[in-house]
Amino acid sequence: MITESMKVFTAVVELRNFSRAAELLNLSQPSVSVHIKNLEHEMGAKLIQRSPKRVQMTEAGEILYKHAKQILFLHQQAKQEIDDLANQVTGMIRVGASFTIGEYILPKIVAEYAVQYPKVDFEIMISNTEEVLNGVHESLLDLGLIEGDSSYDDIQTQFFLDDEMVLLLPSSHPLSQKRVIEKELLQNQIWIMREQGSGTRTFTDRFIEESNITVQRSFIFSSSQGVKEAVMAGLGISLISRWTVGRELEMGEMSICRVKGCPLNRHLSFVQHKKHAPSKAMEMFREKVFNLSL
Q1: Spacing of C-alpha 271 from chain mean position
Q2: 294, pLDDT greater than 60
């Protein structure tokens, strides 16, 4: 490696002696001479004039010495930064999260992590599950937190939290006073749904299909907040994560109920690319996610 030859060259120049440079670097004197010859061949110029009494740089040697010191410093600095990245909790983490996780769960995780590891910066993208998975697949994101599973072969998926889905109704809806309802009562209702690609939409579509429910009409919103606002306005009913409606339930702005005989649960998953080695910062973030206590 040329940096090794530069290290030998600077030692010879500074000690003005091949033997002392060899002793300092724990090399044989012939090995020092080979390094200098290789460097001269690489540079295409004589770098050192050697005589029995002294070692002196040529003009080309003086130019190289000045730059070699800078190169060796930058090389050491780069090695140190890379070592810090692997062994210290520093750097940047690019996280993608689906809307439910990104808006209602992730902020607390990041807040706790930031206190413990103040040298780590975050770049967070909140989108639907499909777009988060694509970001991890294309290496635009270091890791993702999604609803459900991944269909990509190159993405590792690990369940980290169970998420209860609830039926959300306007306070004025005839079923809003019931805590548990029969599945048949959901026939011919107006549904408020998330967009295609959303984990919540995938769950809702599967529930409606498996329950043989006929949908009278549906309205599509691209965020959980939009869905909640539409339900509060009396537009229709929706399936939504229990995480997203805590405040509205406390204020009596909407009602939730459960469907008899239908446990509405899904997995929230941690995803990362199989071929990418995680930094120390990412490993600690993963540990924080899996030790989540909310």
Answers
A1: 9
A2: no
Q: Please give the Cα distance from 188 to 200 (Å, whole number).
A: 20
- Give the pLDDT confidence of 254-269 residue by residue, as tens digits: 788 889 888 899 999 9
Q: What is the pLDDT of residue 262?
A: 87
CA distance readout (Å), 50 to 36, 40, 58, 103: 11, 13, 10, 70
Distance from C-alpha of 38 to C-alpha of 137, rounded to nearest angstrom? 44
Q: For residues 129 and 148, give the distance between their C-alpha atoms in angstroms, rounded to a whole number.
A: 8
Q: What is the dihedral of CA 128, 137, 266, 160, to 10 degrees?
A: -120
pLDDT > 80? residue 61: yes
Domains, in order of start, for the chain: 2-85 (1.10.10.10), 91-160+270-290 (3.40.190.10), 162-266 (3.40.190.10)
For residue 272, give every residue at least 6 positions away whose Cβ sits within 8 Å of its Cβ, in sequence order, or none: 136, 142, 143, 144, 155, 156, 278, 282, 286
Grade residue 160 by pLDDT with cuts at 50, 70 and 90: very high
CA distance 34 to 56: 17
- The average pLDDT across 221-239 equals 92
- The chain-wide mean pLDDT, for the chain, equals 90
CA-nearest of 147, 138, 139 to 106 is 147
Of 24, 15, 23, the residue nearest 50 (C-alpha) = 15
Contact 87, 280 (CB under 8 A): yes
